[in-house]
Amino acid sequence: MSEVNASMVAGQRGTVEPFDVARIREDFPILRQTVRDKPLVYLDNAATTQKPQAVIDTLLQYYGAQNANIHRGVYRLSVKATELYEEARRKVRRFLNASRVEEIVFTSGTTDAINLVAQSYVRPRVSRGDEILLTEMEHHSNIVPWQLLCEQTGATIRVVPINEAGELEMNRFHELLTDRTKFVAISHVSNALGTINPVAEMVAAAHERGVSVLVDGAQGVPHLPVDVTAIDCDFYAFSGHKVFGPTGVGALHAKYELLEEMPPWRGGGDMIKSVSFDGTVYNDVPYKFEAGTPNIAGVIGLGAALDYVSAIGLSAIAEYEGRLLDHATRVFSSLPHVRVIGTAAEKASVMSFVVDDVHPHDVGTILDQQGIAVRTGHHCAQPVMTHFGVPATVRASLAFYNTTAEIDALATGLNEVIAVFE
């Protein structure tokens, strides 16, 4: 199984050892390939990240030597699979600095986790006239579940606006947080803009009014050290495939006392203690929220991904990606006909932009001819596009295996785009 170089283990921001990106790239086999006879430049990490060999090996090892269903099996394979699955839960707890392992519920991803919270926790607590507070920069996965909830209950959604830099108007957040507010759902980092939100401040303000908060951490966990105890959020959700793990798996952190109060959202195997036609006794937290056979391999692979990221260190990752973003910002400022969308002072490694008089899909198609993979479209954040008056953007999203040379290759490709359409 591949290991990261010991020199890359994190210290404090600004005091880490030199970041050996060339060594890291060796751990990602997909980055060695060429596309259209060009080296692959993968800049779509906000959509999904690539997988290190350590994660691939873990999945192969599970399916090749450990495959069995978990919990209740007394034979050796089942016991081993259960041990690996529950060890992954402990890894998530440590990664998020949650208070106890029972606060970690495995889901199919962030979307699944948000729907769980909406239906199991929030729905029984709201009615007509109550308000759910969101922000204008939310991903559709943190909008649509709340719209469904409002259709079911008669509650309404209020929206915190953003400014022209793509930052939340915090004065409006505090104004919109009223006695009618029953729940707040906010993104840690915007997938479309890269904006890092002051979630701890927002949670504290909501708690002063007795309002619970969910943080969508899909874009937070790959780029920032996350401490749910320090943030004090009631719920924190993330997806494995955004943090170099498998697709179809994720986790919800929720405060234990809230999980104890919440009814199950789905029924079936493994979320029960006993079943009869007279009634069912539900399993303990967190298992009462994990109905059916889970994505066992995915959960174990997620644990391997968190091990890999933790060995590098989130502080080291944030410092390196900050330097990449600084370089990209300087390069983009020199490009004619290119306008960056989202210039927040606190920002993670996302560069969304438009090219004058060129549709983003055309930009993406031409860049693909150079082996450069970027995302084009509304990025499941159509309210953001509406705010900036554009139908779509081109998004280059960075990870710790990207390089300044790849950013320069993107700039060269954009110059070719501009030349084609001049």
Can you summarize the main beta sheet? Answer: 7 strands, mixed
- Given this structure, which CATH class of the largest domain is correct? Alpha Beta
**Terminal residue distance:** 50 Å
Task: Report strand %.
Answer: 15-25%
Spatial strand order of the main sheet: 4-10-9-8-7-5-6
Short description:
Helices cover 38% and strands 17% of the residues. By secondary structure, it is α/β, with parallel strands linked by helices.
Structural write-up:
By secondary structure, this protein is α/β, with parallel strands linked by helices. The chain has 2 domains: 6-50 and 313-421, Aspartate Aminotransferase, domain 1, CATH 3.90.1150; 57-310, Type I PLP-dependent aspartate aminotransferase-like (Major domain) (Aspartate Aminotransferase, domain 2, 3-Layer(aba) Sandwich). The chain is built from 14 helices and 17 strands. It has helices at 21-25, 53-66, 76-96, 110-122, 144-153, 170-176, 199-208, 228-231, 256-261, 296-312, 314-333, 360-369, 382-388, 404-421; strands spanning 34-35, 38-39, 41-42, 104-107, 131-135, 156-160, 181-187, 212-216, 235-239, 250-254, 272-276, 279-282, 338-341, 350-355, 372-373, 375-377, 393-397. A hairpin with a 2-residue loop joins strand 11 and strand 12 (279-282). Helix 2 (53-66) runs antiparallel to helix 10, helix 3 (76-96) crosses helix 10 and helix 12 (360-369) packs across helix 14. The longest helix has 21 residues, at 76-96. The termini are far apart.
